[in-house]
Amino acid sequence: MSFRFVDLPAAHDDLRADVLAGLAAQPKSIPPKYFYDEAGCRLFEAICAQPEYALCRTERALMDAHLSEIAAAIGAVDCIIEPGAGDCVKVRALLDTVHPSQLVVLDIAGEPLAAAAGALALEYSGVAVSALGMDFIRSLEDATPYLMGGRRLVYYPGSSIGNFTPAEAAALLARFRKLAGEAGQLLIGFDLKKDPVELHRAYNDVAGVTAAFNLNLLARLNRELEADFDLGQFRHYAFYNPVAGRVEMHLISLTGQTVRVAGQRFHFALGESVHTENSWKFRGDEFSAIAASAGWQRVQTWERDGFAVQLYG
After folding, report:
1. By the 8 A CB rule, do 63 and 236 touch?
2. DSSP per residue, 43-110
3. Which of 42, 98, 147, 193 counts the highest number of beta carbons within 10 A?
4. Domains of the chain with CATH codes
5. Cα 256 from Cα 267, distance rounded (Å)
6. pTM for this structure?
7. What is the pLDDT of residues 206-220, one digit of tens each?
8. Pairing mode, if any, of strands 307-312 and 298-304?
9. Is the Cα dihedral 145, 154, 299, 98 positive or negative?
């Protein structure tokens, strides 16, 4: 077995600065990358199991149905890089079919990543596995020293690209282009535009798991930044904005209140929002145009039930 875990500490330092800046802004916001503490990771796994949230199941079904085609289109690859790898489950299908010699997984939640990647390394003894606990959005280039030579594939599944504005998505894809190298490829998943009612239900499940996931962000701030949010005084609110083409998630203050965070105080008016996440939805041609602006050329597209996977070179 070949396995190494490197925990880059910048992600811990950024939480305080990012949260204080976001709460001082108008409108207030907190970056969605901070959802994923240990409890947040567990809650997100539970979201994927909810009947209203079909994205994860649809992606799995698409990959299962087209895996041989996808592997053939990718061809020989020496290294797979997966930003935001989380529990490292999705990359297993590619390891079974593409057979790289190296896997490099990146995630801001370092400890869960290390556990998942370590287990993967035991199972795939012929693959050198490197797990980097890092905020790849801020410091993607720091992964470069851990990459072996050869042909690289950046794998970015799960529609995470939808958390960025189109301009931010283009900038991130351009950085993926550099990381992959001239002969590199990108395999990426994204959610397609669909019935707004279906999208609304996906982010407002009856069991309240998405609401708990959103509110857990405040619980994390209470624990890690000595904040005093009363979670009972905030409400999860999510809706699809058809003009912008995105689902928006907010935490709405149910009363006028002042909250202490990292020694600073912030006032929330009745009904004021903390914007916690955007999830952009795309048509296939819209996304291809964004990728093209970042230097990628589309090779092939696979679609199933409102979800798409595209391969770029």
Report:
1. no
2. HHHHHHTSTT--HHHHHHHHHHHHHHHHHHHH---SEEEEET-TTS-TTHHHHHHH--SEEEEEES-H
3. 98
4. 52-194+281-312 (3.40.50.150)
5. 7
6. 0.93
7. 999 999 999 999 999
8. antiparallel
9. positive
